[in-house]
Design brief:
Strand content: 5-15%
Mean pLDDT: 95
Structural class: alpha/beta
Order of helices and strands: EHEHHEH
Shape: globular
Number of strands: 3
Number of helices: 4
Low-confidence stretches: none
Length: about 110
């Protein structure tokens, strides 16, 4: 049974081939994913206290570190509250479990200013 307080966003619904950092780098960039796919959904869960976004990274052919970095950098710059971001964003990555730790590290390392 699906948790009614969790909205799941699957990267594979965006693409099977996540690209590089910027739109100018080519198709399916981190910038494109954030601006066109993730931000609207994260806005929705951000405003409702008991909602969370489960970002499902499984089912793609891997990730460039620049893709992950761009998505997290923009998330932190836009929302600023690191603790709330961590409480609102959950990561599923059974294909590459290390990605969960990489994302946590990126969130903690990104300067809010």
């Amino acid at each position: 049974m699906k948790d009614k307080n969790t909205f799941t966003l699957k990267v594979k619904d965006f693409t099977l081939y996540p690209g590089a950092r910027y739109r100018s780098d080519g198709k399916f960039s981190g910038q494109e994913f954030y601006e066109d796919f993730l931000k609207e959904k994260f806005d929705q869960v951000w405003k409702i206290s008991d909602k969370v976004l489960l970002l499902d990274l499984d089912g793609t052919y891997g990730y460039a570190s620049s893709f992950i970095s761009e998505v997290i950098l923009r998330l932190v710059k836009d929302y600023k509250d690191i603790d709330k971001i961590k409480s609102k964003l959950k990561i599923k990555s059974e294909d590459e479990p290390i990605l969960k730790e990489i994302i946590k590290d990126r969130i903690n390392e990104t300067n809010v200013e």
